[in-house]
Amino acid sequence: QSSACTLASMISGKFSRLLQALEMRRALALKDIKVAETQALAQAQDAEQRLRGHREALVHYDRRVRDLLQQLDDRTFLQ
Hints:
Layout: H1 2-69, H2 74-78
């Protein structure tokens, strides 16, 4: 009886430590996921901002080209 209780206590302790280790690992994994998520979001926002800048530059360029194409004076066009 005594050795059975001791064995049960040992096994219970091992499972308790295993559960603790798994919970710690889970917490670390969640933290890593949050960090990666934050970094990915920041990169996506940076890329979006760059694309907006490129689009604005293209709109400006398109406007200039259209204005030039409407010039009747060749000298103005060539300048």
